[in-house]
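Student: Hello, beginner here. Can you help me understand the protein record under this note? Any guidance would be welcome.
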Amino acid sequence: MADFPVATTPSPGVMGVDWENRVDFERLRQYRIARVRQMLDEHDLGAVLLFETSNIRYATATQIGYWAFNKGERWALVTREGRPKVWDFGSAAKAHRLQLPHMYDAENSVGGNTGLQGAIGPETGLHARAVREIKGALEDAGVADQKLGVDLAETAVFLALQGAGLNVVDGQQAMMRAREIKNPDEITLLTQACAMVDGVYQHIFEALKPGIRESDVVGMAHARLFEMGSEFVEAINSIAGERCSPHPHVFSDRLIRPGDQAYFDIIHVFNGYRTCYYRTFAVGRASQAHHDAFKKSREWMDAAIDLVKPGTTTDQIALAWPKAEEFGFEDEMDAFGLQFGHGVGVGLHERPIISRLNSLDNPVEIEEGMVFALETYAPASDGRSAARIEEEVVVTADGCKVITLFPCEELMVANAY
């Protein structure tokens, strides 16, 4: 690894401009639908029926805000030819027709309702109506007798699809495979999302001092991200002091104190694409235990990064990390998510997933165009502190490029005494 990472993937800004080529959103839309259709062919599916919001956005370029996140109240159908069809929450269907008139009209952007996750019961006939309309669209496309891949559906909807005689199979694997390889526009959006978090970490580093609460950092990070153009902040882990070990994955109102170690994870969305980006600091002063834990975490991170290139398999990366028992956990299930890698895109956890839990027996080959996060965790010898590092990488023909650039080569002490 170089002395410090320098990203070679672009982060040109949050605006579209006439004087520079930035993200080509039409190219992005066409790439994504082509990937979905490629997977229909590879998985022998006539169509995919999508309820999971990340899949819907990927395939249709529509969204109605994160209040609707995974409520199951909007869905999309993609067949091998023609336009995707979206059933949406009331007036949202008309909005899509106004927002993207070259893609949607009264034929393929319509209202739909499957009962608001049980708030309206099946006895009303909404489930049956939805299934009739889905089956009709499949018949119009000539694929009603072929396998229908479904990603994540409510039980009542799933049973109604089966009851209508449709050959329902798992469609989530096809969608995960479609989303696995990113095009240049996706990589630009992912890099820009990371650039925004670079800036937030500068604010956090300057603000970390005794008396600030974990929750204050969360509020400050939300505000700064929205100022920079984030569309949604999914989560901010803000963990300090004795809460660092074991990792609780949730912030509290704990006051940060002199000599605390503190780590943060910033998960936000820019134009549909997420970050997952940890950094660890000490506040005021750092103990030898803090430095040792950080050094361990960094060594495990660098060992993983050095392996990332096309043709490497995920078991090779997982083997660069310690066994669960070596850092205080019962087994790999108990420690899952600590020494960890996961794809990042329109969803937070995409392929490949890298860990000793799954990768040793079922390795996946690393391919050019993948973007994933690598996470390492090292508890400190003081029994209360820990170091947590995460880097996002883009896999290129020559290896990988790190796109999380806030300094992390050694433990940084905020507001040192």
In short: The CA atoms of residues 214 and 310 lie 39 Å apart.
